[in-house]
Amino acid sequence: MIIGDRLKKVFLFLMLFIFPVVVLANPLGDVDGNGKVETKDYLLVRKHILSNPPLKDNELENADVNNDGVINVKDYIVIRKKILNIPVDGKEICLISLKTGESKEIAANNTKNINNALKCANENGVTYLNVPKGNYFIDVAIIFYYSNITLDLNGSTFRLYPNGYNNGCMVRVHSSEAGFVTIKNGTLIGDRDKHTCADGSAMSCKSGALRCPTEQYSTHEFSHGIYVGTHDVNIENMNISNVMGDGIYIAVINPVKTDGKINIVNNVIENCRRNGISIIHGKNITIKNNTIRYTHGTWPQVGIDLERNLTEQVYENVLIESNSIYGNEAHYSIQIFPGIKGFLRIINNHLGDRVVAFDDSRHPELPVEKKLIELKGNDINIPNGVKTFVEEPNKLFTYGIYGAVLREERCPKK
Ligand SMILES: [Ca+2]
Ligand SMILES: [Ca+2]
Description:
This protein has 5 helices and 26 strands. By secondary structure, it is an alpha/beta fold. The protein has one domain (6-18, 101-404): Pectate Lyase C-like (3 Solenoid), CATH 2.160.20. The strands form 2 sheets. The chain has a 24-stranded parallel sheet that branches. A two-stranded antiparallel sheet has the order 8-9. A hairpin with a 2-residue loop joins β8 and β9 (209-211). α2 (39-49) packs antiparallel against α4. The protein is elongated. The relative contact order is 0.08. Bound molecules: calcium ion (2 copies). One calcium ion (CA) is lined by residues 64, 66, 68, 70-71, 74-75. Residues 30, 32, 34, 36-38, 40-41 line the site of one calcium ion.
């Protein structure tokens, strides 16, 4: 987690300017790719249905306007309605049709299908997408480029097809255009059990973590379950596990809207490698009724980590309430670095380990804002052996300077 300032600046640059780039694609139904949906497109689809002549490969994608993977009379009807400006019912279009089975190709196609449905929803004013219940492999990444959309996983499980990416989040909500996004009711399982280095070689143990010797001993810790990079995001009733980095990573790169909120509610986040939840930068964040446990693999390995990358970043008005946070390798349920603004309320949680706040030894002029931390009503059950480290005032909160705590370095269990 702690990386050099220069590297951080490069990383921030990538986050701000490279990854959020929206590829401007032609609208669905624009079969010939001239930028407009018009009679010619409709005729091309009609001819394709009659196989006279069939559409070319580059024409097929935009012809599948209802996103069900085949081009037939249903698409033709929707295109015709679009040309005639007849409203299209959301049930006719933007379908999510996924395939079961374990292969890279299936995973890539499933991800593409969901991204196409999100695009379709944006073009047609559809605000709710429902995944047919099932178990599916996906590739990186499902990306929310657009606003005002709910993706209901409807009890489905998405597994990440194993890869060798250092920065391969399963879901990204961080386009500068996105906001008012909800993701709910599903399971995301990362690839930590089968993850490799970029060249396909196995990771190996060095300095307490699995790393890639061929990549300057990179830990591949930037592959998160859900990357939240914009305002007004809700993550509800999800189970996120086995990811290489954090279950949820919050680093808002959008200008934070005045009353924009991020709500992480009723989720289980477990067996993630770096942190359960990382908060780097964001405002009006509520983390409530979640179970966050068994984080282990690469430092810091805490339940919730409030740790900015740059001194201008803040965690403003954060409520951490009624969560159960335990069994994390670092023995810290919550770790706090300087950057608090407004309030940080930690109330009514069940905590299996300490809450720690650290001054950042690299910036001693900016100590952690202890006065802004409110700890109340937390039920603490710290295992034997760790208890001896607990300090007053309320046998919960420890304060120190980062680096003062000796950590045992050992290769973690998978
Ligand atoms: Ca056209
Ligand atoms: Ca179709």
